[in-house]
Design a protein that fits this description.
heterodimer, A: alpha+beta, Immunoglobulin-like, MetI-like fold, five-stranded antiparallel beta sheet, three-stranded antiparallel beta sheet, B: alpha/beta, D-Maltodextrin-Binding Protein, domain 2, six-stranded mixed beta sheet, 19 helices, 12% strand, MetI-like (chain A)
Chain lengths: 378, 453
């Protein structure tokens, strides 16, 4: 009795913790999503958490100029609505930047140039003057504005020129750059796990050692090698083959390490008995190892795919920034502008680029956990 | 399902590629139509036949700037028959170094900082231009000799060579304000530095905040303050001291330099003078900082920033009505003329070819400048370019400041070695605005510079 009570209390704590963690994990994504459907100008002045409730905003409005004035009883009149059709309520207004909240809506006031202002709570305004308006006058108002959302950010990203081309480029880079390392690594992992040859342990140690080489160090030497080899065959240094090979090289150490650990953990009896039955190494690899290590292959495929898909550095170095070769990450960065000011684009583009990785992840995720555990825990 | 999405994407991408090509063939201003353009230099270009040749251009411009530059390139492509492709990157500084060293550099590179071009020239990775280009720049540009000097670097053997032509200038000595806010409060545009300081004190006494200063810029945080210091250096010391400072012949911890930093401190080290107080200076992003001018009530009355800053004004702000600028004035009590601080992008050859040579000639011809002037967001020091073609009144006024400057000096931090101008100077200014003393900051920067030698 006592133990079960304890147990339920513990379960409660576990549930609460899980709930807490789930919320903590989701908040950034939720914030990103809300930011992505907010107005660009609002985004830069207030945080996303303010977007859900109606807020009091202080706004400067400039009326249209002389082109839209009308003449009435010898006076020039400008009429319109401060909120421009949007919902909301004017709480206070002013006609000088020094006192933007001087008047209640419904009152009438005059400025230094004898221009009369009348503003209603629903935003309707009437500005009258004896002289023609040279240019629009400013009205300061404080308004209760309900939350407002827009899909403009998504429209900007989706309508940007060359996005489709970049999508294809990204796929062209990513798919071979995922398949090639897996192919090579699977062969290597089998050899390193089950074929006995001198220097095998050293080779494994070497591969593990390569894991710590920062790829940034190899960019210039690699590109130099490419342009020298390219010059011999008369082809460009920058191209898809180059980037596939680069990604393959950068991905291989981890791939071999992960797969070798998994494959060496497979039951040796099966392989032994297959050998006794006269199977060659290739047959063993194809008929036994490959099907059994599918979880590990899939989990590495997810890793590699996500890493290549999200990569910007290697793509800009080995593929370049030209219109025809720009990958998706490069294209989105280009949308940010020369000085990185348009960051509202980032929020929307994050949700657009996430589609393919999500598809890959959900397609292969049931193997992911199994593969990860199998690789590390023997 | 997946198949249909994929085919849709392919269709989309095909559609977009055809679009790109269509755009390249279209010229935004019909040759010969608008007589204000210098079409003669376009006609001359037609004599050059580069058909079948490819030219790659790499620069820092993205987004709308890229579009405008593509429009300019289209004229070169059409007149000569060359196939020109421009690529932009916001990490141009890193990428060009990788590409140049690896031997896969583009034909033409457009450097936002001459200091970086000098580094590459010293390694023998830039191609020197011929004497004809040098003479033309000297003759055609306002203050031509200074533009030539700015593009003259030592090659790997230590000989001075001329490496590039400047295309697109930025004007830095500008103070932005809202004329209506000045009218409401009864302030006048100051003509001298003394007036500007008096106005600053008056605004603070009236209960307002005079300045919006923001130094935040990601990894480059601190650079807006370097512009302040450079501008004040030119207003407190003769231009030759400035030149010596750039070459570190006048040390960074020289009292004259420390004095300029403290001048900046007069504005920025006063809670009453800056929006948000001293602490907000380094924490505010330079892109958000000008928005304070247009808040209700105004968060500040003035903002010192270069000519590109209207790109970060709120959408509804109309230049000339809601926002305007005045020249960051000089001291009436000091006889130093009206110095102007600016910057510019340098077009150089990183991979020599016939087309690259012709492209350099095109870049220094008036028509190339005019074609972008007429599209907005471009200032030119080219004397042959017709100022009537500036797309906005604001740009025209800035163009005049640039053209008639008695002293034009290039942004010092762009000329200093990268470790200083794009490193120690930036972090030093952040430390300074966070409360370190000007001497300490200057000594720290000088120490870094000594370590480079």
């Amino acid at each position: 009795m006592v133990t079960s009570k304890k147990g339920s209390a513990l379960t409660m704590v576990v549930h609460a913790t899980v709930l807490f963690l789930v919320i903590m994990w989701t908040i950034p994504t939720a914030g990103l999503f809300i930011s992505s459907i907010r107005d660009k100008d609002q985004l830069s002045v207030s945080g996303w958490w303010t977007a859900l409730s109606s807020s009091e905003q202080k706004i400067v409005y400039r009326t249209p100029d002389a082109d839209s004035e009308i003449q009435e009883n010898g006076l020039y009149v400008l009429r319109g609505n401060l909120l421009e059709g949007g919902s909301g309520k004017v709480v206070k207004f002013g006609i000088s930047s020094l006192k933007p909240e001087a008047f209640e809506p419904g009152t009438e006031t005059q400025d230094r140039r004898d221009v009369t202002f009348k503003i209603m709570a629903n935003g309707d305004y009437e500005v009258t003057s004896e002289k023609s308006f040279r240019r629009g006058v400013r009205i300061f108002y404080t308004a209760e504005v309900p939350p407002r959302f827009t899909l403009d950010n998504y429209r900007t990203v989706l309508n940007s020129e060359g996005l489709g081309q970049s999508f294809i480029n990204s796929l062209t880079v990513t798919i071979p750059a995922t398949v090639i390392p897996i192919l090579i690594a699977a062969f290597a992992a089998y050899a390193l796990a089950w074929m006995k040859f001198p220097g095998r342990a050293l080779l494994i140690a070497g591969v593990v050692g390569l894991l710590v080489v920062p790829l940034q160090m190899s960019l210039i030497p690699l590109l130099t090698a490419y342009s020298k080899i390219g010059a011999i065959f008369g082809i460009e240094a920058k191209g898809y083959v180059g980037i596939w090979l680069a990604h393959t090289g950068f991905g291989l150490p981890l791939a071999i390490y992960l797969l070798r650990n998994y494959i060496s953990g497979l039951p040796g009896e099966i392989i032994e008995s297959a050998r006794v039955d006269g199977a060659s190494d290739f047959v063993i690899f194809r008929k036994i190892i490959l099907p059994l290590s599918f979880p590990a292959l899939a989990s590495f495929a997810i890793f590699q795919f996500l890493w290549v898909w999200n990569d910007l550095l290697i793509a800009t170095v080995f593929l370049g920034n030209t219109e025809e070769s720009l990958v998706l990450t490069g294209r989105l960065r280009e949308l940010l502008g020369s000085r990185g000011g348009n960051w509202e684009i980032l929020t929307a583009s994050a949700f657009i680029t996430i589609i393919i990785p999500l598809m890959v992840f959900f397609g292969l995720q049931r193997y992911l956990v199994r593969g990860l555990l199998a690789g590390s825990v023997k | 399902m997946k198949k249909s999405t994929l085919s849709m994407l392919i269709a989309l991408s095909l559609a977009s590629t055809t679009n790109t090509w269509a755009n390249q063939d279209e010229l935004i201003f019909k040759p010969g139509a608008d007589t204000r353009f210098n079409w003669a230099s376009f006609e001359q270009l037609k004599a050059v036949d580069l058909s079948g040749q490819e030219l790659t251009v790499f620069g820092p411009w993205l987004g709308s700037e890229k579009e405008r530059f593509d429009n300019v390139i289209a004229y070169f492509a059409q007149a000569t028959g060359a196939k020109v492709s421009y690529a932009g990157s916001d990490s141009f500084e890193q990428q060009i170094v990788i590409d140049a060293q690896a031997g896969s550099a583009p034909n033409i590179s457009i450097f936002p900082q001459p200091g970086l071009a000098a580094d590459l020239a010293a390694k023998g990775l830039l191609t020197p231009l011929d004497a004809e280009d040098e003479a033309a720049v000297k003759k055609d540009y306002a203050a031509g000799q200074s533009w030539v000097d700015l593009a003259t670097f030592k090659d790997q053997d230590g000989n001075n060579e001329f490496y590039g032509v400047f295309y697109r200038a930025d004007l830095k000595s500008l103070v932005w304000y809202s004329p209506d806010n000045f009218y409401d409060a009864g302030y006048d545009v100051p003509e001298t530095m003394e007036d500007l300081k008096a106005l600053t004190e008056q605004i603070a006494a009236d209960g307002g905040t005079p300045w919006c200063i923001g130094l935040g810029s990601g990894a480059a945080t601190g650079w807006p303050a370097t512009d302040w210091v450079e501008d004040l250096m030119l207003r407190t010391q003769p231009a030759d001291v400035y030149d010596q400072w750039v070459k570190n012949e006048v040390k960074f911890d020289d009292p004259r330099v420390v004095g300029a930093i403290e001048e900046f401190g007069w504005f920025a080290h006063n809670d009453a003078f800056v929006d948000g107080g001293i602490k907000a200076v380094a924490a505010t992003d330079f892109r958000d900082s000008p928005k304070g001018l247009f808040a209700s009530p105004p968060k500040c009355y003035m903002h010192r920033q270069a000519s590109f800053v209207p790109a970060f004004f709120p959408d509804e702000i109309e230049l000339g009505i809601d926002a305007d600028f005045f020249y960051f004035p000089s001291y009436a009590s000091k006889d130093l003329g009206n110095p102007v601080l600016g910057a510019g992008t340098l077009v150089s050859i990183t991979n020599d070819s016939e087309a690259a040579r012709e492209f350099i000639d095109f870049m220094r011809s008036p028509i190339a400048h005019e074609l972008w002037m007429a599209q907005k967001g471009f200032l030119s020091a080219h004397l042959g370019a017709n100022p009537e073609l500036y797309a906005t009144e604001t740009a025209k006024k800035q163009g005049e400041i640039l053209r008639y400057a008695t002293t034009f000096r290039f942004d010092a931090s762009d000329l200093m070695p990268g470790k200083i101008g794009a490193g120690a100077f930036w972090t030093g200014m952040v430390n300074y605005s966070n409360g370190d003393s000007a001497e300490a900051v200057a000594q720290e920067i000088q120490k870094t510079w000594d370590a480079l030698k």
